[in-house]
Structures are given as structure tokens and as C-alpha cells.
């Protein structure tokens, strides 16, 4: 772990030196440069997590504050497999007896999680 943070520190120092070499860039203290660098490196990851509706709401609210963005509303679509009876997988052997609510989007053949693709092998 120490080696990782040492390499990270060296990369940060090198980036700060290279940043100062360009004429158009303003001179920043090392601490301020690290804060900007950390924010720029974390921002793409935070944007992805902001739209992950499986995360706790409090965490997504915190991320939206850091990014200065509005909290996106969760879109709830109707689930096509809600209320359906569980059926035996049409691809697996009958001796495995795997039951599922998922099915092929083209032929509606039931498929378990192991065999599942958006379209079954016969429809491809």
C-alpha cells in the first residue's frame, strides 16, 4: 500500500511541475493543484454513480451537492415480468429444474439467469 501511495505522490508532483511549465496555466500552490486534480479525476466516476438508482438516496444527494447538479429523478418503467408465473427454463435440461420469470424478447421462451441473453440462441 505504501508503494502505491508513493507512486501516486510522485505522479502528482510530476503533474504539478508539468502544469507549471505551460505558459497559459496560472501558478497554483501544490495543495490547490491536488484538490483540482482530485476533483477532475473523480468527476467522471461520480457522474456515473449519480445515475445509479440502486445507491442509497443520501449518498446520491451528497454526490449531487459535490457536482453542483440536480438530483436526477428515478424513472420507473413497468416490469414486463411482474405478476407472471415462474416457468421452467426452456434451454436447460429438465433435470436441472431451473425456474424463472425471464424470457426471450422475440419468442417469449423462458430462460434462467445462466442461459439468459436478450434473445435466445434459436432466435439469433
Automatic annotation (TrEMBL):
It comes from the Eukaryota. InterPro entries: Znf_FYVE_PHD (IPR011011). Residues 1-15 form the signal peptide. Keywords: Signal. This is Uncharacterized protein. It comes from Acanthoscelides obtectus (Bean weevil).
Amino acid at each position: 500500500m505504501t508503494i502505491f501511495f508513493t507512486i501516486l505522490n510522485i505522479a502528482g508532483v510530476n503533474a504539478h511541475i508539468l502544469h507549471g511549465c505551460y505558459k497559459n496555466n496560472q501558478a497554483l500552490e501544490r495543495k490547490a493543484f491536488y484538490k483540482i486534480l482530485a476533483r477532475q479525476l473523480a468527476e467522471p466516476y461520480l457522474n456515473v454513480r449519480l445515475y445509479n438508482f440502486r445507491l442509497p438516496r443520501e449518498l446520491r444527494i451528497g454526490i449531487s451537492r459535490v457536482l453542483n447538479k440536480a438530483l436526477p429523478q428515478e424513472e420507473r418503467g413497468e416490469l414486463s415480468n411482474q405478476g407472471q408465473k415462474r416457468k421452467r427454463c426452456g434451454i436447460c435440461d429438465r433435470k436441472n429444474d431451473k425456474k424463472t420469470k425471464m424470457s426471450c424478447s422475440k419468442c417469449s421462451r423462458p430462460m434462467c439467469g445462466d442461459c439468459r441473453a436478450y434473445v435466445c440462441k434459436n432466435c439469433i
